[in-house]
Write a structure and sequence with these properties.
The protein is an alpha+beta fold and 100 residues long. The chain is built from 3 helices and 6 strands, in the order βββαββαβα. Strands 1, 2, 3, 4, 5 and 6 form a 6-stranded mixed beta sheet that branches.
Length: 100
């Protein structure tokens, strides 16, 4: 299942939401590509999604949930990727597996 919180996180003059999967990184990446979210928007275990793309995500089946549920679902699924396990900027390095 895919989940998205309310776009309320400001950056670059826009509001962003967090998009996650509680199934797999593969499901998350495929859905992000489907809705036109660029790979650079991936951050450790979620995608930062513009408010416009968040509407498309919900329309295509992502379940809207409060922000706290995003973290709860990632932890429960064993997909939470803490910052200290990522490189210094929190981005995936080329050739690095998404989830060791």
């Amino acid at each position: 299942m895919l989940y998205i919180d309310t776009p309320r996180w400001p950056a670059h003059g826009r509001l962003f939401a967090h998009l996650i999967s509680d199934v797999s990184a593969a499901e998350l990446h495929a859905f992000a590509e489907l809705i036109g979210v660029p790979p650079r928007a991936f951050e450790r275990d979620h995608y930062d999604v513009t408010a416009e793309r968040a509407q498309v995500a919900v329309w295509l089946g992502a379940r809207p949930v409060p922000s706290r549920v995003i973290v709860e679902r990632l932890v429960a699924a064993g997909l939470r990727r803490p910052r200290h396990l990522s490189d210094s900027r929190g981005k995936k390095k080329p050739g690095q597996p998404l989830f060791p």
